[in-house]
Amino acid sequence: MLTHTFTADALKTVSIGYLAAEFIKSANAQSYPLQVHSRFQHAVNLKRSDGYLLTLLSASHYANLADAIRLNLPASWDWREKTIGGEEIWMKNEVLHGAGWSIYSKGARCWQPDRATAHAHESLVSDAQHYYAILLHALTLFCTTHRIRSELSLFPRADSGQKQPEISLNVNAAILDQQIAQLIGFGRGLTPDGDDYLLGYIAALWRWRYTQKVAEHFTLLCRGLTNQLSRTNDISAHYLKRAVQGHFSEPICELIQALATKKNDVEVNSAALAVMQFGASSGADCLAGFLHGLRALKATQ
Asked: Are strands 101-104 and 53-58 parallel, antiparallel or unpaired?
């Protein structure tokens, strides 16, 4: 039987995502409890009745997320032993209280990325396209070295037997909805392969979402995706919903920024590697989707 210690461990906050910071400061956060939704050794997802998802992460294992608190956890800490599925986690005076632990986040460093939008005069075939070969090489090497197994074909025109993702920039809403339906919820893992691919695709287009040749497609993409979130699990749906709103993980934000600010090839490669560190295949799926987005931008010329 799972038991909790009676002495509360005060867990040290390393950083807090900007949306998590807003949530903790809100009046509603003090009134309604969160419940333990899913738990892993180094992470736990807490969900409120209105659907809000707050994630607690080990800072030594995970980068920042908009809706997450990163913690300096003891080496032996395991959320599967420290929490019970469905148990209530309360907040009082901006302090989270669990059974045997508490988190004081006031005054912690708040992570917030620069989410710059491309200027209207910028060419879609910009310096970002120069980096395509670098990102593709990074993905190829990573998948080979780590023997990544995805239910998707992560490379264009690859004869791998896996599903080949199809997302086209110049199609009508009905066809785009069909293409989304073929991906959302498809594959294995807490965040299925198809969902991670879609998230990467959205991230690649994000800076260009208001430009003439992308705006209509991006609007249809976000609308179609939002309408089909019920086809995947609630954790993955949360990340896709955030992506549509422009909220991505720290590694994805840094990759977008690296391309936008014309970082050197080594720095771009490092940013790509950071994206692929997440999950068993999630990061690779995401980068493959990002590359698909770059191909879509190039095809507009």
From this structure: unpaired
Angle between helices 265-276 and 282-298 (to 10 degrees): 130
Calculate what percentage of the chain has a pLDDT beyond 90: 76
- The H-or-E segment that residue 292 falls in is helix 282-298
Contacts with 144 (C-beta within 8 Å, 6 or more apart), sequence order: none
Measure the CA–CA gap between 218 and 206, rounded to whole angstroms. Answer: 8
Taking Cα atoms as reference points, which of 228, 222, 227 lies closest to residue 245?
Answer: 222
Q: What is the pTM of this model?
A: 0.93
CA 198/CA 196 separation, integer angstroms: 5
Q: What is the DSSP letter of 108?
A: P
Three-point CA angle 31, 35, 40, nearest 5°:
145
Phi-psi region of 51 (alpha: psi -120 to 50; beta: other; left: phi over 0): left
Phi, psi at 71, each rounded to 5°? -125, 150
Report d(CA 228, CA 185) in Å as an integer.
9
- Are the CB atoms for 24 and 14 separated by under 8 Å? no
Tokens (6 digits) for 172: 């009508």
CA distance 217 to 225: 12
Of the candidates 186, 177, 210, 184, the one whose C-alpha atom is nearest the C-alpha of residue 199 is 184
pLDDT tens, position by position, 31-83:
889 999 999 999 999 999 989 999 999 999 999 999 999 999 999 999 999 99
**Strand bridging mode 9-17 / 109-111:** parallel
Distance CA 286, CA 132 (A): 14
Q: Of the candidates 7, 251, 5, 301, which has an alpha carbon nearest to the alpha carbon of residue 138?
A: 251
Specify whether the CB–CB gap between 139 and 154 falls below 8 A: yes
